[in-house]
Design brief:
The structure is a single chain. A 6-stranded parallel beta sheet has the order 3-2-1-4-5-6, with helices on both faces. The protein has helices spanning about 15-30, 55-65, 85-95, 120-125, 145-150, 150-160, 170-180, 190-200; strands at about 1-10, 35-40, 70, 100-105, 130-135, 160-165. The model is unreliable at about 210-220 and about 220-225 (pLDDT under 50). It has about 230 residues and is of the alpha/beta class. α2 runs antiparallel to α8 (about 190-200), α3 runs parallel beside α4 (about 120-125) and α5 (about 145-150) packs across α6 (about 150-160). The chain is about 35% helix and about 15% strand.
C-alpha cells in the first residue's frame, strides 16, 4: 500500500520550518512522498491579504524541487470557491487509487479547529489525520474533538501526534520583515528569498482585518508533481 502525506496550507510564503516539518513527518511515518497543497481561499483564514496564488504555488515548487520525496499539487488552486480539505482528500484518493493510504499533516495548534471543519467525521475515515507539534507543547484537550469525531477516533488521532524539532519561524514574521526591508535569509530557501525580492512580494503590509472569519523511506530519481 502506498503511503502518501498531504500537507496543505497557504504557504504565504513557504519557509524552512514547513520543509523541516514535512521531512520529519515523511521519515516518522515512512511515507513514499509528501504532497504540498497550496490553498486558494482557506475558510478559516482571511484570504484578502494573501499573495497571488500563482506566486505562492511557484514558491512551493521552488522550495521543494530538490527533494525527490516532495511533490506539489495545484488541485485547490484550480477549484472554484473555498478550499475544503474533505474535497481535496476525496480527489487525491481518486487520483492515487484504492491502494493509497493518505496521511493529512496538520499543526498541533490546528487540532482545536477540527470540529468546525466540513465533514470532519468523513475526513477522519478517509485519511489518517496526523498532528505535528513541538516538544514541550501542552497536549491538546480531547473533549471537543471527541464530540466531533467520536471518542475512539479522537484517541487514535491524538495517538498519532509527532513531535518535531523546535524551529520558530512564521510566515507572518517573514512578511513583516520584507515590508520593513529586513533580512529573511535562512528563514526561507534561498531560491524563495530571491523570488520574493525579484517579484516585490510583501513590500506593503496588509491592513489588519476588523472581522475574524469563522469557521521515510529513501527516494531516488527526479521530483514528481502530484
Amino acid at each position: 500500500m502506498k503511503k502518501i502525506g498531504v500537507f496543505g496550507g497557504t504557504f504565504d510564503p513557504i519557509h524552512n520550518a514547513h520543509l523541516l516539518l514535512a521531512e520529519q513527518a515523511r521519515e516518522a511515518l515512512d511515507l513514499e512522498r509528501v504532497i504540498f497543497v497550496p490553498a486558494k481561499a482557506p475558510p478559516h483564514k482571511r484570504a484578502g491579504g494573501l499573495a497571488p496564488a500563482a506566486n505562492r504555488l511557484h514558491m512551493v515548487r521552488l522550495a521543494t524541487k530538490r527533494n525527490p520525496c516532495f511533490a506539489v499539487s495545484d488541485i485547490e488552486l484550480r477549484r472554484r470557491g473555498p478550499s475544503y480539505t474533505i474535497d481535496t482528500i476525496r480527489a487525491l484518493k481518486r487520483r492515487h487509487g484504492g491502494d493509497a493510504r493518505l496521511y493529512f499533516l496538520i499543526g498541533g495548534d490546528t487540532i482545536g479547529e477540527l470540529p468546525s471543519w466540513r465533514s470532519i467525521r468523513t475526513l477522519a475515515k478517509l485519511c489518517e489525520i496526523v498532528p505535528l507539534t513541538r516538544p514541550g507543547t501542552l497536549a491538546p484537550r480531547m473533549g471537543v474533538l471527541a464530540k466531533a469525531i467520536g471518542k475512539k477516533e479522537a484517541r487514535t488521532l491524538l495517538g498519532r501526534l509527532i513531535n518535531i524539532p523546535l524551529m520558530d519561524i512564521s510566515a507572518t514574521d517573514i512578511r513583516r520583515r520584507v515590508a520593513e526591508k529586513r533580512s529573511i535569509r535562512y528563514l526561507v530557501p534561498e531560491v524563495v528569498r530571491e523570488y520574493i525580492l525579484r517579484k516585490g512580494l510583501y513590500r506593503k503590509r496588509a491592513r489588519p482585518s476588523r472581522r475574524t472569519t469563522a469557521r521515510g523511506k529513501s527516494c531516488g530519481g527526479k521530483s514528481r508533481r502530484a
